Amino acid sequence: MPTALKSYFDTILLSLEGCYLVLKQWRYLLIALLSGAVIAGLLYTIVNWSSTWPLLSSPLLPFLDRLALLVDLPRLAVINHGLPMLLVAIVQGAAISLLIYNSRTGKKVDTKSMNGSILASAVASHGLGCSVCGTSLLLPIIGLFGASGMYAAADTLAMYINLIALTVGLIALLRLGYISYANYQSQAYLQSKSNN
User: What are the CA-CA distances from residue 28 to residues 25, 35, 52, 71 (Å)?
Assistant: First the structure.
């Protein structure tokens, strides 16, 4: 195996190990799950703003019902948009958790990974939505170019956009995992030195 390819695979393995070492700690796993749920609910709200905002802002809807709707948004996101939404939300939640870990331990924020994570969320929000229902954010962009025949292919295009968002999110997650591995090993070394 060529040296560059082996080095690339070693980097990926260290990145995955760094993700595992951080996410096996209960507080970072909880942060990842909660932030993933918030991101799923947020993406769903952005895509379906025309149906959720009137309910949330209605004075006739009791406060507890509004709260129940807000809590139910991540479930609705996964049911209506399926696996791409779930995967993007999980990757983004894990990236946020690793970013918090790295900022606590390394005292330095990796701006490239943070920008990649934000970019993945932005790209995912454009790819989600229903072209038939009119909730897709992609259709107005296609309409700007006068390509009305592209409306038929909007769902296929949205799938590719979601795959791009997932790829960008995974790259940011792997980069954060690599930094997390280095920070974790550094913390373990400092702790073993202080014990001796």
Answer: 6, 10, 30, 21
